[in-house]
Each structure stands twice: as C-alpha cells, then as structure tokens.
Design a protein that fits this description.
This protein has 146 residues and is an all-alpha fold. It is 98% helix and 0% strand. It is rod-shaped, with a radius of gyration of 57 Å.
Length: 146
C-alpha cells in the first residue's frame, strides 16, 4: 500500500465516521422535530380551547359590567338622597351647636349679672348697716353728751 492509498483509506474512514454521526444527528433531530410538532399541535389545540373560554369569560364580563352599570344608575338617586340627608343632618348639628353656644353665653351672662347684683346688694346692705351704726353711734354720743 502506498502512501496515497493509505491517505485515501484514512479519508474514506473519516468520511464514513462523519456520515454515521450525521445520520445519528439527523435521527435525533428528526425525533426532536416530531416531538416539537406534537407540542405545537397540542399547544394549538389548547390555545383554541383557551380562546373559546376567554371569549365566554369576556362575554360574561361584559354582561356583568352592563348589569353593574344598570344597578349603579338605579343606586345614584339613593346615594344622592343619603348625601342630602347627611348634609341636612350636618346643618341641623351646626344649628344645634350655635344654639347651645348662645344658651351657654346667656347662662354665663345671667350668672355674671347675678354675681354683680349680689355684690351690689351686699354693698348696699353693708352701707345701710354702716349708716345705721353710725347713726346709732351719733345718737348715743348725743345722749351721752347731753
């Protein structure tokens, strides 16, 4: 065997090994592609069912939203009435507080006036008593001097 034949034999064996590995790789690639195809088919079917379910959910959601909007419109007058009652109660509360403040101020003024009248009355009585005592002392003094 010559050097050229040996090189050709090595190249043929290398090519054979390359072809065997290429066949193995293509076989694995073929299996992978089949599995991928199955997965895609399953995903497509699931997405189809999922999209049908989503359409049902969206339809139900729209129906529910319409129902809620309708009921909300019916509740608007009640909410407004409650707000009006709340405002009225607040106004009554403010009026009652003002009235209570006026009553408290009048009571304090009356108590102050009573205090002044009591003080004035005591002062008048004391002055009258002092004048009476002085008058009696003067009378006694005149009786004793005579």
């Amino acid at each position: 065997m010559t050097f050229g034949q040996l090189a050709g034999l090595i190249a043929a064996i290398a090519f054979l090994i390359l072809v065997i590995f290429a066949c193995i790789l293509l076989n694995h690639l073929s299996k992978t592609m089949k599995e991928t195809n199955k997965s895609i088919t399953t995903l497509t079917r699931d997405i189809h069912y999922l999209s049908q379910e989503m359409e049902d959910v969206l339809s139900n959601t729209n129906t529910l939203l319409d129902d809620i909007n309708h009921k909300s419109e019916q509740l608007d007058p009640a909410v407004k009435a409650v707000a009006d009652v709340s405002r009225s109660v607040s106004e009554v509360n403010d009026s009652l507080q003002e009235m209570a403040e006026k009553v408290r101020m009048r009571r304090e003024k009356r108590q102050f006036d009573r205090g002044i009248f009591k003080f004035a009355g005591k002062t008048i009585v004391l002055e009258a008593f002092n004048k009476l005592r002085q008058h009696r002392k003067q009378k006694k003094g005149m009786t004793n001097n005579e």
